């Protein structure tokens, strides 16, 4: 089940209450992970471009990843969410399949394991406070998933895994012996190298088409600006696999067509098996409907004036009709 509420404060209050009401269920919180967020925008009347500024709350980021993992693996999950539930998220197919399954007695090359962890956004580090890291000490391999409060320790004999245990990261004491464990991605957005290569070709193709269109319209400054900015982003993607504003290229990574809705948290649920509650629906329904229009209005200036490719339009919240077609059963709740 998912309960969508109009603001973060109310969602947090409901989260605390639901943890008490459903002690045996997996109750999760899914809200924006920004403590501060200023989206990029352009004001034509002042010829003013405003760069994106953001401060990410690592605790909230970890809770979002925990939510995705819980929804995929447990049928008793209850999610308390804000309108973040209708904003673009990673492809659930990638999140579900780009995991690492480890069993006691299996053979696993440690260098290969480190590489596979890096591919799903884990970093090699001794600092375990933020989660999403791993480190190696001799034949002991420790992994700290961001969605768990414990670490996972693998004991190797050569390339064979002899033991798998969970442990407390603070006092280092063993919690439980395991026969197997599955490691899920450390970030919400993960993708394969094949998808990155395909995305690069499609970005280049759309860039060429858009430059021609702008030049036909006599917008030579905008065409040059778009070429410089997009070429730089592509160079960053090729060299480090990331660029500022990478979310504006999400359609290419997801393999979606222009105008096709993005993946969201709702796509992680089985549509036939979950129910949606809209809390304070007299506020929540208009809010859900307004998110798309506000996002489109801001993006239109960025696209028209050569700051972004038209693909930026497809990194967006759902339209209200798309939201209704994505969820299964839905109950609108309001108190008067």
UniProtKB/TrEMBL annotation:
Residues 1-115 form the Helicase ATP-binding domain. It comes from the Bacteria. Residues 197-224 form a coiled coil. Signal peptide: none annotated. Keywords: ATP-binding, Coiled coil, Cytoplasm, Nucleotide-binding. GO terms for molecular function: ATP binding; ATP hydrolysis activity; DNA binding. One of its GO terms (biological process) is nucleotide-excision repair. GO terms for cellular component: excinuclease repair complex. This is UvrABC system protein B. The lineage of its organism: Bacteria, Thermotogati, Thermotogota, Thermotogae, Kosmotogales.
């Amino acid at each position: 089940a998912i309960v969508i509420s109009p603001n973060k404060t109310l969602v947090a209050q409901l989260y605390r209450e639901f943890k008490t009401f459903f002690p045996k269920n997996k109750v999760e919180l899914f809200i924006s992970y920004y403590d501060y967020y200023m989206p990029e925008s352009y004001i034509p009347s002042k010829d003013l471009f405003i760069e994106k500024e953001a401060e990410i709350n690592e605790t909230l980021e970890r809770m979002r990843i925990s939510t995705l993992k819980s929804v995929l693996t447990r049928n008793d999950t209850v999610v308390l969410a804000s309108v973040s539930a209708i904003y673009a998220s990673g492809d659930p197919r990638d999140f579900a399949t780009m995991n690492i399954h480890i069993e006691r007695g299996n053979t696993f090359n440690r260098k290969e394991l480190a590489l596979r962890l890096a591919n799903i956004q884990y970093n090699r580090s001794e600092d375990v406070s933020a989660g999403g890291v791993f480190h190696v000490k001799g034949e002991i391999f420790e992994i700290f998933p961001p969605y768990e409060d414990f670490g996972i320790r693998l004991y190797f004999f050569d390339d064979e895994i002899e033991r798998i245990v969970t442990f407390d990261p603070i006092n280092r004491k063993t919690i439980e012996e395991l026969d197997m464990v599955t490691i899920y991605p450390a970030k919400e957005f993960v993708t394969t190298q094949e998808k990155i290569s395909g995305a690069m070709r499609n970005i280049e193709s759309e860039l060429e088409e858009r430059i021609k269109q702008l030049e036909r319209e006599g917008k030579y400054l905008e065409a040059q600006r778009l070429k410089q900015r997009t070429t730089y982003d592509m160079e960053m993607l090729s060299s480090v696999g990331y660029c500022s504003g990478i979310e504006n290229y999400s359609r290419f990574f997801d393999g979606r067509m222009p105008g096709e809705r993005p993946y969201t948290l709702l796509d992680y649920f089985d549509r036939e098996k979950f129910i949606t509650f809209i809390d304070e629906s007299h506020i929540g329904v208009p809010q859900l409907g307004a998110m798309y229009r506000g996002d489109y209005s801001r993006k239109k200036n960025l696209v028209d004036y050569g700051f972004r490719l038209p693909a930026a339009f497809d990194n967006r919240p759902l339209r209200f009709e798309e939201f209704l077609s994505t969820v299964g059963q839905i109950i609108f709740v309001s108190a008067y």
